[in-house]
Structures are given as structure tokens and as C-alpha cells.
What we know:
The complex is a heterodimer of chains A (about 625) and B (about 250). Helix content of chain A is about 35%, strand content about 15%. Chain A is an alpha+beta fold and about 625 residues long. In chain B, β3 (about 70) and β4 form a beta hairpin. Chain B is elongated, with a radius of gyration of 20 Å. The chains are: A alpha+beta (about 625), B alpha+beta (about 250).
Amino acid sequence: MKLDAKIPEGLLAEKWTNHKFKVNLVNPSNKRKYKILIVGTGLAGASAAAALAELGYNVEAFSYHESPRRAHSIAAQGGINAAKNYPGDGDSIFRLFYDTIKGGDYRSREANVYRLAEVSNNIIDQCVAQGIPFAREYGGLLSNRSFGGAQVSRTFYARGQTGQQLLLGAYSALVRQMNTGKVNFHARTELQDIVVIDGQAKGIITRNLITGKLESHAGDAVVMATGGYGNVFFLSTNAMASNGSAAWRAHKKGALFANPCFTQIHPTCIPVASGSQSKLTLMSESLRNDGRIWVPKKKGDDRAPGNIPEDERDYYLERLYPSFGNLVPRDVASRRAKEMCDMGHGVGATKLAVYLDFEDVIGRNGKNWVADKYGNLFDMYEEITGENPYKTPMRIYPAVHYTMGGLWVDYNLMSSIPGLYVMGEANFSDHGANRLGASALMQGLADGYFVIPYTIADYLSGNAGGFSDTTTSEFIETEKGIQDHIQRMLSIKGSQTVDEIHKKLGLVMWENVGMARNREGLKKAIIEIPKLRKEFWEDVNIPGSSDSMNTELEKAGRLADFLEMGELMARDALEREESCGGHFREEYQTEENEAKRDDKNFTFVSAWEYKGAENEPVVHKEDLVFENVKLTTRSYK
Amino acid sequence: MNVTLKVWRQNNSQSKGSFSIYNVSDVSEEMSFFEMLDMLNESLVRKSEEPIAFDHDCREGICGTCGVFINGRAHGPISGITTCQLHMRRFNDGDTIIIEPWRAKAFPVIKDLIVDRTSLDRVMMSGGYVSVNTGGTPDANAIPVSKVNADEAMDAASCIGCGACVATCKNSSAMLFVSAKVSQYALLPQGMIEKKIRAQNMVDTMDKEGFGNCSNTYACEAECPKEISVSHIARMNREFFKASIS
């Protein structure tokens, strides 16, 4: 299979403009003849649904949530990047592009990343026009702060609730279109499979989570914005229901899965407190602007943090990376925290934590200043841990947060199945091997508001439109396959709960496919995961039936897919014999324990093809070509 | 610690519900309230009984999906947090904890503790937006907003749409929810243009959806996990009044 990324010709800065001119358009009065199915209504899905409906297309939008406003985009705290250069500190579209490419450790496409940087400014304009209450200075203009991996202040924010405000903005645009009838929203409706007819995505099968009824929906294109698969680890900062099933089921229908091993471990999360823990909570990266990370110099030091004198503290990020200090990218900060704990410098009851200390900034600017900036995060921390971070440093530890990998898409965001588009975290395209902070919101909205409305027309214009037949054999067979899958799960009636097996999978993934990986561990995971899969299909117990609300059945369906996906992640990690970004292979590191890339042999995207349950998947390679940046060793020293 | 739960169980919107009693032992104080319920649910599943259905997702107090009545209070005994942020250290060994769904005409029960809050979406559909299309907007800094107004708009915009205000109000009024949105936009130049029609349409839809009126008891503000102020209701009333006489 030849992978064609369809990157436009021409100079980097002109590619997107030229492309928008060259793509085919759908004439305004013809747009109403097309129906687009959008699965997932977080930032990317809601913004796309609104933008496409405004243009005149008919949109059917689907979410397993009761409302688009519940999507996990809402939990993003710190901010959204844009190359506005309002502070006048040397930012530009090229610098945002450069920082993002470098931050991703040169494993993403130049053209995609440049486009992202280019439209970043439109996003801020759009959001302000929608009435999103971004933080402002006293003069009435917008305020910026800095984030990891950048030396300029380009992050726009709304307190520690930027994701919430941007999602509610996209939601407001979406409900406006729902009110006009151009968008028909299906609440509590989960995708089960996509329907492919003559090689093109033409529909989906969904399950109504209240009645259990399977439903067929036909359309002229399918757009998936279904988020990431971080919950394969069981414990992550993702919401409880976040899952990879939509992407995985499309993968099994022929969509290639790219760079599945690229997962982001976020450095500043509240550490695990007990075995009954159901999820991990993030403390925004923005805290690293003003908080200082340290551990006691003495191993196993049990003194309270306040009793450890200054000269017995190791501010290890400031020591190792004097120019970026506490604001090194996430992968670096995470790995160093793990290393400190592995060496015996960890703090707290479990010793799996480091301090994030605000004493200096409180002394410098006062408690009120800190409360104004981070108040909600401090309150959240105190409610969970029972400790007051104004008085005692936060304890933090890395946790799974984001998946850079996802379904392979070309420059138009179309997957390897014609007519199936993938946006936001669900695709792989923009973040390479490591995403910079405040770039997820940027990508979700770029894809939804400013990319898909142009690129989808190119595909639709080649189709007559108005496809609506759900009685074809493809629909009937796909629905039957789902019906069988569900009944098979319900009929097992074994002895283990879904969560018990999920926790086992999470442990295998965290130990072998987590922050640091090695050949032996990855091979072990490839043996262990199929065993867990077998355990699931022989021993899971799901009470209740399929014809009513059944939360255990929903979880089981998602776990069944994670049990396949985890294995592909391990395979991908095993084959990528280099370290890059969030993918750290212990065999490939420099003498200073930094990631050692192998540009000669691994400057490509791994795009995996599903070959059936009995066969090993096949990898296809899309070579990454760099014409505008020089591949250098990332240095944040 | 050990606790006794009295939990509302109801099969679906048509069936009649009732309380069931469960004893939960070995609860640790680090557990969140939902992790305690997870533990109970795991034990029910092992006995092939259906687990208690409850809405939850982010478990960090921002998505607004969760919300139950705990001992007669929306989101439980602690002010300023959602149910998912409540931890068991707030309870004592031997406590009896009564757990009920939101109860309001506009929020019919779907199953057990899960209710249907799509009525709030329909209120939003009738005016909870600024009517701008994608693209063609002016440069972001071309619209200056005073920091005071931006901050107050942000206070209002922090509403998570959980519905605690409705559930706790004796009239099942959605005034705090609706006014937070009306107020956010009325404070900003972008939203000011449509402020009258917005207030009117959203209030009309609120009435149509079966939410009650406001009788100024301020219970909503007391139970709001984001501590949204009732002063937004006053602002909405002004906008609504101005709309109805102009």
C-alpha cells in the first residue's frame, strides 16, 4: 500500500492558501443535498458540526454523552496557543510551527504543523467573537502566559478552565445550528461500527444507550472526532468513558492506525493514593510557570518539606536545564520525575511523587496573586489530597494524559478509507512524538473550524450526495456483526468484573508500554495482552441485558477493544528502535539519559494495517520529509 | 470505615422506584465518594446483580455530568464542589448515607440516579450563543473588554450545567443556570447586541420546559458547586424587563 499524504506543492507558507484555492468546492445551493455524520462532539466535533452546518450541509452529530458540553475537552485547564505575538516577545507563525515540530521530536509532518500554526490566530479571533471570556489585562486587551517547550508567551487562557470555555464556545455555536435544524444531535448514542460501501465510508451503526437499540445512519461522509485512547492504561487523566473504540473499529474496517505507541505522560498529576483509585487528576502545566519542582537531596528523606533546608533540596529541572528550567516539555519533565523517584528521592507515603512548590512565588507576589491565577487548581488539589498547597508543596507524579497516535489521515484529514475523516486527538497528524502544552485545544479547533470545512468539499464534490439507503447488505451485515458481538459478551457470565480485567491490562501497559520501554518488556506485553484478552472472552461477567441501559455492557465493549489496541501499541513501540518524544526506549539514550533519536532509520510514520484477528498486523511507512527545519537533537539546556 | 447506603433504584423512566439498602465495609478515607460506589458496584456485579447506575465522567468537577442528592443536599455536605470531588474523609464510620437522583419535573429519571437534563440544552438552543459564523471575525484585540467585566463574565461562564440549582430549588427553577449565560454575554460587547432577545427567548423556553419560577430563596447559590452568584438573576431580570417593554 502506498501512503499518499497529499501534501500540496509549493513553499511551506503558501501550501494551505494554494490548497484552499485548488480543492473542489460544493456550490452553496448544493450543500443542502449532502449529509455528514459527525461522531463525537468535543472541541473538534462540535466546532466541525457548527461550521459545516453554517455552510449549509446537513449534519447528524452523535455523542455517548447526554450533551455536547460534557466532552472531555472540557477538562483542559491551562490554555490554547496562538502565534499572535501580542506580547511582542518574538513570536511568529514560523516560531510556533518550529516549536511544535521540535517539541514533537521531528516525527510530524511539516505541512500539517505549519497549517496548524497558521490558523491558530483565526481560532483566537473566532473564540473572542463568540464571547469566550479569556483573561485580560487592565487595558482591556488579551493576556498571555507561557507554557512548556516555548520561550515566548503565546498561551491564551480563561483561568484554569480554558478547555471548558472553548468547549462551551463550540457548544454555543453547535446549539445555534441545532436550533436551526441543520444539526440533528443524538444524545447518549454510541458508535458501534462504520459501514463501508464500495470502499467508501457511507454510514455508521450506533447503539442508543438508554434503550439499547441498534440504529443505522447513512450519509455522504463520516467524520470521527472521538478523542484518544489513554484509558487503555486504566488509570489516566482521561474521563471515565473516554475510549478508543470508534477509532479501533474503523481500523478493523480498513483505516490505518498511525504511531499507536506515541502516548504522552503528563508530569504534573496528583499521585495515586490507593488501590481503589478510579482515575488520575491533572494539575495544569501552567503551574510550572510559578511553581518550582524539587526533591530532597538525601535519599529516603522523611522530613516534612518545610523542614528540609534550601541547600538540601535538589531543584533538578533547574539544575539540568538552566535555560528552560521548570518549563521543559512534558516528556522530559515526566521522565526526570520518574528517574528521581527510581533513584530513591521520591516523597510522600508511596515515594512516587516529587514536590511542586509555590513558596517562592507566594513570597514574591502574595497569596492573592497566586489565588487569582490558580485558585481553582489549588482548591481541587486540597479537596482530593486533604493538604493545603498554599502552605505545603503539592506532591505530583506523571500520569497518562494524551495519545499523539491515532488514525492515519492525509493533509485533508481523510483516513485511508475514502469518505472517513478523523479530527482532533483521534487522528495522529500534528503532534509527532510529543505534544506541547496548550496545543490540543489549538488542534481540535483548527481541525473543526478551519480545516475540515474546506477539505471535505473536495471529496463531496465527487459524489452525487443524498445517500440515505440503510437497507443495503453492508448495513445489515454490519449490524448483525455488532448484535453477535454484544450477545457473545453477555453470554459469558464468568467470574470477573470488567474493571478487574481492565486494571490488569492497565498494569501490563504501565509497566511495559509506559514511560520507559525496553525490548524485553514489550515482548512480554505482546504475550501477556492476548492472555488477558482470552480471560475477558472466557471469564467476564456482565449482568443485565442489551435492551436497556447497561453501563457494564458499555464498559465491556470498550475494554474488548482496548485489549486489542494495547497489543498494537506494544508492537509499534517494539519496532521503533529509537527514543523520540514520549516514546523512550531504554536501549536508546544518550550518556546524559536523554532520548536518542535515529533519524537515519526512523524518520517515518508507522501506519498499521489490520489483517484479521488471526494474523499479525502489517506496518506501512510514510517517510517524513523536512525541507524547512534542520533535524537537531532537542536540547532544553 | 463502614457505611450504610440508602440508594434510589429505578429501572427506567416508566417504572416506580424505591430505596434499597446496602452496607459497604472497608471504605478508606482517601476514596472519593464515587470510588466507594464503584466498590459497591463491583460487589454487586460479582453477585450478578445490576450495578447502581449513576452519571459521572471527568471525576474532577468540571464536566457537570455527575450530581446526586446526598443526605438531602445537592452534591453532598460540602459547599463549592461537585459529587465527584467529594471524598470519604468527609464521612464517619457508621454513617447512613441517603442517595437520591435530582428531582425536578424537567429532569425525568432515566435509571436509578441518572436523570435526563436535555431540557437545559433546549434552553441553550433558544439563545445561549452569540450569532457569529465561523471565520470573518475581527482581530481578537480589536474588541477590548474591561478586566472587571471579563472577570465577572468568567464567573458566570464557569457554570458547569450540572443542574444542582434546579434540583435544590423548591420551584425547580433554572434561573441561576439561565441567568449565568444571559449575564456572561450581557457583560461583553460581543454578546450585548442580542441581549434582549436572548433573555426573552431563553426565559420563554425555560418556562415551556417545565422549570419553575424564582422566589428568591437563594438555595441555588448555596448549592452551586461553582458558587455562581444570584446577582446574575438580578441582571437577567433587568434584561428581561427591558426586553418586554421595548
